[in-house]
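Deliverable D5.2: sample structural annotation.
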Amino acid sequence: FILVSGGVPYRGFQGDIRSEALDMKNYLEQLQVPKENIIEESRSRNTKENVFYSDLILKSQQAKRIILVTSAFHMKRSMKLFSRTGLTIIPYPTDVRINTKPVYSDFIPSVDALLNFSLAVKEHLGLLAFYFFQ
């Protein structure tokens, strides 16, 4: 089975309220994954809750080992949180970000640079929270 996790609601293109898990489930169905093979966790609002609610589902399904799919920049924190569950975790990072621009371009303001900086700050703050507020 495939467990999709992420409940932070947002407004979709048609104005409907959606969750990340619902979008992932719909996408998997478009890829011809049978509905009965997809389990949706849509209550979580952050990574810690993703792990908590996913762990409840995984244990109810008697899972022992999982393939954890998430963004490469987010994998370190996700692995740290999932390591507490007792499951065997196989990391599968996605959307690896690399810089193919010349080094001097890092000093030129851009939307991409701002996005990358924002993601890095969020992830580092999340790791600090993991270490200090366990």
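Annotation notes: The first helix runs from residue 20 to 30. Residues 38 and 84 are 24 Å apart (CA to CA).
The annotation will be released with the project's public dataset once the embargo ends.
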